[in-house]
């Protein structure tokens, strides 16, 4: 959140839910070479990766993430290591887990993982990417730019908008991040980070209204 404390209005919730629905892609998942969970402050991403692995959708899991914006001041080990520890605790064999624990953003998640797999002689052609629900679209757009030859689907923890926030990830943080991620969807293609995507007028309007309401903490200045 921005420095000024504000009441969260019902209108803000409706606008934020529009962004939530836009960010989610609702891909139908199929068997792939690898499940790749992109690191974050939300351990439910790792749990979703484990669930899909146990369903037999891929024989390998990659956990990618160092210490990023939301974890560098809170966690004492990289996101990939925390994710892998949880996966092993949930019954995944260590031998099917690959960790990339240097990356600090989505582009690095992809580039560093691609380099790591190449060095290990692994030529995966298809991926199920696991992200937070409100980062599905940006993850897809980044992956398509950075690794266009791969076949990808994106998924996330199966949690609805109203139920997603937690004590550590409150609703205002979620809304701020969604607004910031939409800004990145708008401006990153010109920087060569992502592929272009259509943004419908109602989504653009919701984005602008949320900025007017003060949800600017995650915007690039």
Report on this model:
This protein has 221 residues and is of the alpha/beta class. It has one domain: Rossmann fold, CATH 3.40.50.620. Helices cover 43% and strands 10% of the residues. The chain contains seven helices and five strands; from the N terminus they run αβαβαβαβαβαα. A five-stranded parallel beta sheet has the order 3-2-1-4-5, sandwiched between helices. Helix 1 crosses helix 6, helix 1 packs across helix 7 and helix 2 packs across helix 3.
What tags apply to this protein structure?
disordered N terminus, 43% helix, 221 residues, 5-stranded parallel beta sheet, Rossmann fold, alpha/beta, globular
Mean of pLDDT: 93
Alpha-beta content class: alpha/beta
CATH topology description = Rossmann fold
Percent range of helical residues: 40-55%
Reported CATH architecture = 3-Layer(aba) Sandwich
Report Rg: 17 Å
Largest sheet: 5 strands, parallel
> In which order are the strands of the major sheet placed?
3-2-1-4-5
N-end to C-end Cα span: 15 Å
Number of helices: 7
CATH superfamily: HUPs
Quantity of strands, as a count: 5
- The stretches of 5 or more residues where confidence is low (pLDDT under 50) are 1-6
How much beta, percentage-wise?
A: 5-15%
């Amino acid at each position: 959140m921005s420095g000024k404390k504000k009441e969260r209005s019902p209108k803000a919730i409706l606008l934020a839910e529009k962004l939530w629905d836009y960010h989610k892609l609702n891909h139908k998942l199929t068997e792939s070479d690898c499940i790749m969970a992109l690191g974050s402050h939300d351990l439910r991403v790792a749990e979703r990766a484990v669930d899909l692995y146990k369903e037999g959708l891929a024989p390998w899991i990659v956990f990618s993430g160092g210490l990023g914006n939301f974890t560098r001041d809170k966690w004492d080990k990289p996101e990939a290591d925390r994710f892998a520890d949880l996966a092993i605790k949930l019954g995944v064999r260590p031998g099917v887990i690959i960790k990339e624990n240097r990356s600090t953003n989505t582009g690095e998640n992809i580039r560093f993982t691609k380099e790591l797999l190449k060095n290990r002689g692994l030529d995966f052609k298809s991926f199920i990417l696991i992200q937070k629900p409100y980062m599905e679209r940006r993850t897809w757009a980044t992956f398509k730019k950075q690794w266009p030859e791969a076949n990808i689907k994106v998924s996330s923890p199966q949690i609805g908008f109203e139920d997603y926030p937690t004590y550590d990830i409150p609703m205002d943080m979620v809304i701020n991040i969604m607004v910031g991620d939409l800004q990145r969807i708008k401006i990153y293609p010109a920087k060569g980070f992502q592929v272009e995507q259509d943004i419908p007028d109602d989504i653009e309007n919701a984005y602008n209204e949320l900025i007017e309401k003060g949800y600017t903490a995650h915007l690039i200045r």
